[in-house]
Amino acid sequence: MTECIFCEIVAGRAPASFVYTADLTVAFMDIRPITPGHTLVVPRRHAVTMREVDAASWTAVWDVVKRLQAALYETPGVRCEGINLFVADTPVAGQEVPHFHVHLLPRFRGDEFGLRFPPGYGTIAERAALDQQAQNIQAVLRS
Ligand code: AMP
Ligand code: ZN
User: Fold this and answer.
1) Could you tell me if the CB of 94 is within 6 A of ligand 1?
2) pLDDT digit string (tens) for 87-105?
3) Alpha carbon 112 to its chain's center
4) Which of 4, 9, 40 to mutate to test the pocket of ligand 1 (most atoms within 8 A of CB)?
5) Can you tell me whether residue 42 is helix, strand or coil?
């Protein structure tokens, strides 16, 4: 056994309810669904954070996300009036399983799921501060 449950699932050594399998990626049902139809898309190759995911796996994962989101809207028994995509990148962002994955979370009116915003959220930021942040990020992108 490796220490990574998603590597165990990918290798077929731990159980999962697969909805999709391919060379670079798999998708299976979340074991603790927030809403019915809650699905995870996972690259086969172990990578903990987004930074560590290779380009081919990244493309494959998001291609599957695109196909799956369309399927969820049509799936009998899945009440899908909307979808949230969610990635928890590192524990501070809520990552519990240290193998990159994308959540597809079907949403419907009254599902009682929600995101909690910090106190003070809603204040329009100073344009100068936004411009400065944009420039700082641009500089990193160019480097
Ligand atoms: P997070 O790392 O916080 O983005 O979320 C990890 C997700 O993986 C949670 O929603 C868990 O319910 C789910 N999970 C953990 N173990 C398994 C498993 N063996 N099979 C399917 N889903 C799992
Ligand atoms: Zn892994």
Assistant:
1) yes
2) 999 999 999 999 999 999 9
3) 20
4) 40
5) strand
